[in-house]
Amino acid sequence: MSRLQPNRRQILAGLGATLAAPALVTRVNAAELTLRLHHFLPPVAPMHSKFFEPWAKELSDASNGAIEVQIFPAMQLGGKPPQLADQVRKGITDIAWALPTYTPGRFLVAETMGLPFMVTHAEETSVAVHQLMNEFGGDEFKGMQPLAFWSHDGGKLHMRDGPVRTAADLAGKKIRSPNAGMGDLLSSMGAEPVFFPVTEMVVGLSNGVIDGCCLPYEVVPPFKLQELTSYSCEAAPGARGLYANTNALLMNQRSYEALSDDLRAVIDAHSGIELSRRIGKTFDEFEAVGRGMVEKQGNEIVQIEAAEIAKWADAAQPIYAAWEAKLNDAGHDGAAILARANALLDGQA
């Protein structure tokens, strides 16, 4: 930390006065700068222990202890998951993990990667998401400083009472849908999509409100999904995954800009596209763990054949067309965004 200044404590003592929102940055005895990080999953979730806690330690180490990140899981600072982006923007928390799909129609470029079949594996797709946002995201997260964008692995259909091998198996089934695009696809194949945050899924499966859910394996451990379902149905190898939601790690813009140059450099060095790649790789590891738990439970893992997935992808064409029009209506070049998203997923720089 060669850029640390001898008068850091005097500089940081006045830092809070420069912020428009109260309590964005505070000083404590153990560190000169405390940032609060808010997210929606319980502390037993792999993302909490395998990424957020190590990342917080890395920021502390890189700043010689000047930065402390206090992590508040399970919405401990109040509110609901769809409010996390606004909590960052308003300064209720300094950093948050937000899902754009929880506020449909607001972050359209980011939501594009949540359309059906816009995912390969988490690491590759995370890099694609971040690059797409760099190229087309513009002011979509105005008032917030994006630190990383990432994707989980492709979603699977986890069912209570019977497997899904073809679209016919979905007829009449109530499925917790992860976003509107996937809900439209499920509806086109005869299912009844149900929408609520993942945190409410356990109750829905337990009381029979839903017959299944569409989620990646990485969600299995924190919610014991393997105990609530009996079949996990995944796209055959070589086919794109059913869906993947874009995730965003966001920091309050005023908080970020008010940092001293050296502390901002620490944040910058631990964010960006390489952080997105790292989180995606971590999610690929989470995926393997979750799948292993499903296997250990003795649940049946069903592969949906590539030819069947191709039929589903054809059924999704009207969804892409409608999304292109929606992007156009918002002032974007919808065709260019969709083409670039697919090119990035296909490995084109």
Radius of gyration: 21 Å
The count of strands amounts to 12
Low-confidence stretches: 1-29
Class by alpha and beta content: alpha/beta
Spell out the CATH superfamily of the largest domain: Bacterial extracellular solute-binding protein, family 7
Q: What would you say the CATH architecture of the largest domain is?
A: 3-Layer(aba) Sandwich
Indicate the overall shape: globular
Mean pLDDT: 91
By DSSP (H or I, 4+ residues per run), the number of helices equals 15
Order of helices and strands: HEEHEHEHHEEEHEHEHHEEHHHEHHH
CATH class group of the largest domain: Alpha Beta
Helix content: 40-55%
Could you please say which CATH topology of the largest domain applies here? D-Maltodextrin-Binding Protein, domain 2
Major beta-sheet overview: 6 strands, mixed
- For the record, the count of structural domains works out to 2
Termini, distance in Å? 34 Å
Strand content: 15-25%
Secondary structure elements and their pairing?
Elements lengths: L7 H6 L12 E3 L2 E8 L7 H17 L4 E6 L11 H7 L4 E4 L9 H5 L9 H15 L7 E8 L4 E4 L14 E3 L3 H9 L3 E3 L6 H6 L5 E4 L4 H4 L1 H4 L2 E5 L10 E7 H5 L3 H9 L3 H25 L2 E5 L1 H10 L1 H13 L4 H12 L4
Parallel strand pairs: 2-3, 2-4, 7-8, 7-9, 10-12
Antiparallel strand pairs: 1-2, 4-11, 5-11, 6-9, 6-10
Helix pairs in contact: 2-12, 5-12, 5-15, 14-15
